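Please, structure for the following, as C-alpha cells.
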Amino acid sequence: MSLTAGVVAVQGDVSEHADAVRRAGAARGEAVTVREIREAGVVPDCDVLAMPGGESTTISRLVREEGIADEIRAHVAAGKPLLATCAGLIVASRDAGDERVDPLGLVDVTVRRNAFGRQRDSFEASIEVDGLDEPFPAVFIRAPVVESVGDASVLATVDGRPVAVRDGPVVGTSFHPELTADPRLHDLALFGDGAGE
C-alpha cells in the first residue's frame, strides 16, 4: 500500500519532516510518497499531513493567502491525520494568544508563543508520551506552551505543562520530533492506532 504524505512547505523544517514521515512509513512496511505543499490543490491528494515549525505569523499568513488553510481544515474534517509541530501547533490551535496569528481552530487549546524562552533557551528532554512504550527525545526550540486545554487530550507534559496534545485526527507538539532520528512520534500521529480518530 502506498500513502501520500503532505508537508506544508511554506516555511520550517520541511525536509526533516519529509524524512521522518518516510522513516515512520518504512518502519511499518508502507511506501510513502511525500509532497511539499506551497499552493492550493495538493492537500486533497494527501492521506496524511505534517505542518512544521517556523514562524507562526508567517505560516498563518501564507497558508491563508495561498488557499491552503481551508484545504487543511477539510482534510481534518474528513478525519485524516495531521501532525502540527511547534509553530505548526500554534497555527492549528483554537487560540494562538497572538492577534497576528489567524489560527485554524483544529486543536482545542490555547497556546503562548516562545513560552519556553528564546533560541538560547532551547533544550532537550526525555519525555513520556501517551501511546509510546519508551520515553521520546524531545527537542524544544523557541517552543510554545499549551496554556489551557479544551476538548483535546494531553499526551505529554514537561514540568506539569502540556507539550503534546491530540484532538481527533490532529496531534500537536510544542517540540520538534523531526529533529531526532526517532520516527515514533510521526508514526503515532500519522500511522498509529489513534491516527485519524
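The chain has five helices and twelve strands. The mean pLDDT is 90.
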